[in-house]
Structure formats: structure tokens, C-alpha cells
Amino acid sequence: MRSLKASDVMWNHIEPIRCGAPLTRVVEALLTNHVTGLPVVDDKRHVLGFVSEQDCIHALLVSSYHSEGEPVVDDVMFKSPLTISPEEAIVDLAQRLGRDKPKVYPVVEGGRLVGIVTRTAILAALAKQGAGLGESRFVEQDTP
């Protein structure tokens, strides 16, 4: 049984959030892609931050209460996100879940975002590998 890597389970088809994006656009991207958070990148796909559902909920509530203008992602994103390499072993990543607790990991290679790995993808990969089950048995619930 070979060791799975982040690149084996990462999604590389989701468009990251760009700096300056209105929070309503961020919420739309989260809901459309069925993910709990997304990386925030610059024009060269360097990861500058991470924005989650929780960040959006809080910012939209505060903005609505104070009747302020629409917030942008730069105002609410976490500016020191955990990132991983495409070569990181899924087993190692799974062991970190208890300590770090992110639900989505930005995958970075050469300083640029190349994809994301969700906690659901890690769970599905471990279940398939550990139980020796076929692909059709487990379907990721948060895939678009």
C-alpha cells in the first residue's frame, strides 16, 4: 500500500479569493464550492491569507449592525495561514488535525498556490486506504 500525498487528494480546480474581493463574493464562492474556507492570494497566486465561513459570519453581522459599507476579504482574513506541500503525506496531515484543526489546507509549491486539501478529502482517503475499499464506496460530500 503506497503512501498517499496531498497532491493525490488536493483540489486544483477551485479559484482562490483575490485580495480586495467583497465579502459577499467570498460567501458565494464558499457556498458554491461547498468548502468552509478558501485561501486569499495576490495576482501571482502567493498565499496572503485565509478566509473562513466563521470570519464571514462575524464580519457580515458586525457590518450589518453598524450599517457600515460592505467589508472586503482583506479586513477579515487570517493573515498567517497554515500551508502544506504537495508532497506532504496524508498520514502526517491527519495526525496534525488534532493540533492545528484547520478544515482546509492551502497547498503551496514554489511559493504559489496549487490547490487545497479538505479535511473531508483526508478522511475519505484514509478510509479508502485503510479499509481497502473501492472508489465508489466513498463519495466526498463537499465536492462541487
UniProtKB/TrEMBL annotation:
It comes from the Bacteria. InterPro entries: CBS_bac, CBS_dom, CBS_dom_sf, Diverse_CBS-Domain. Keywords: CBS domain. It holds the Pfam family CBS. Residues 10-68, 77-132 form the CBS domain. Gene3D superfamilies: CBS-domain (3.10.580.10). This is CBS domain-containing protein. It comes from Marinobacter nanhaiticus D15-8W.
